[in-house]
Amino acid sequence: MDLPKLSIAALGGTVSMQASHTGEGVIPTVSGEALLSSIPELTTLADVSVETLGLLPSASLDFGFLLSVLSWADFQVKLGAVGVVIIQGTDTLEEAAAFFDYLWPYDIPFVLTGAMRSASKPGADGPANLLDACRVALAQNSRQRGAQVVMNGQIHQARNVRKTDSLALQAFSSPVVGPAGLLLEDCVRYLRPPDPRTVLPLPEQTTHRVALLEASLSADTLLLENILALGYDGLVIGGFGAGHVSQRWATMIEHIAERVPVIVATRTGSGSTARASYGFSGGEMDLIRKGVSMAGFLCPRKARILLWLVLGCRRQHELGRYLDHDTRYQN
Ligand code: ASP
Fold it and tell me: Measured between alpha carbons, how far is residue 67 from residues 61, 164, 183, 204, 328 in Å?
């Protein structure tokens, strides 16, 4: 019987890290091929091809590299893959997942995974996560779900997932909505049907810049004053509470929003921005009047990914439509 074709790419991250000598910190050294040798049962499930596209800590991934990974994945689909799995570091996993999700045009599962314990640690979670990710990528019920993150027995949608713990094994969660699914006795079980997806065209330009600033108590406005002069093409603010900034920031933001798109998200780590609750200067109603877009449930980092991609395909006039996807509870 022909096994389904599954394509796996390794980019680096803790899952691939080892120390060369005791007492030295771990660095990415383990190839995708070597990672696969730790889950021999996969060969009974799929006809697997694996490539090591990078050995990087995920802090050093960038949009250009992610676009090359996307074109690798696209080629795998053309070769007949029924699913793709990306192995990478967990530090930027939520951002990479959102990036791929906005651009993945297929129903075919696109699954990202990593590990919290490095390859040589007792109880390393990489092999279990990788096998789980492959099961999810091969499952028929994973279709039409865009990019998903599989970690520690849970399946998270790219738009919702966040790294919410720096070192714990259970480092990923999807605030408000919870995981989309689970691996139960090696079976892929979803807890809700797939959400409708918004897919963007590939960027036509990649040299534009989007800044991300976080509001903080008593912050000065020096960076805001210089954002336009520095040549930024868009700005995302991690705002207080339901998407708020100080009065002084609001004045500066109004000026910036006349020239480039500005999105305000919540810095709280969970929940949505408001639209119609607070009327004070710097509150969301004031910011909306000043031309700002509110991020809804999108966290500041993912709002930055979305704005960069929207600017890249010159669809900034449709930003509201793409953000509506994440604020639709308010309709
Ligand atoms: N601590 C990270 C990880 O879990 C390192 C990285 O993101 O590359 O993979």
Answer: 11, 26, 29, 12, 29
pLDDT value at 327 more than 90: no
For residue 57, the cross-strand partners are none
Q: What's the whole-model pTM score? A: 0.96
Annotated ligand binding at 58? The verdict is: yes
* Residue tagged 């074109």 (tokens): 71
Nearest to 134 by CA among 124, 148, 144: 148
The H helix count followed by the E strand count for the chain is 9, 16
Give the mutation target among 11, 16, 17 for probing the ligand 1 site: most ligand atoms within 8 A of CB. Answer: 17
What tokens were used for 213? Answer: 């600033």
pLDDT of residue 325: 62
Q: Give Cα 25 to chain centroid, integer Å.
A: 26
Element (H, E) at 305: helix 300-312
Tell the residue number behind the tokens 């969970």, with chain if given: 270
List all residues whose CB is within 6 A of at least one atom of ligand 1. Answer: 13-14, 57-58, 89-91, 114, 116
Q: Once rounded to an integer, what is the mean pLDDT over residues 281-306?
A: 98
Task: Evaluate whether 35 touches 126 at the Cβ level (below 8 Å).
Answer: yes
Question: d(Cα 14, Cα 25) in Å, to the nearest integer?
Answer: 11
Q: Is the Cβ–Cβ distance between 291 and 320 less than 8 Å? A: no
User: C-alpha dihedral over 237, 240, 243, 248, to 10 degrees?
Assistant: -70
Distance CA 243, CA 322 (A): 18
Name all domains of the chain by residue range, CATH numbers in brackets. 5-190 (3.40.50.1170), 210-323 (3.40.50.40)
Distance of CA 96 to the CA centre of its chain: 4
**Ligand 1 atom closest to 93 (CA):** 7
Catalytic residues: 14
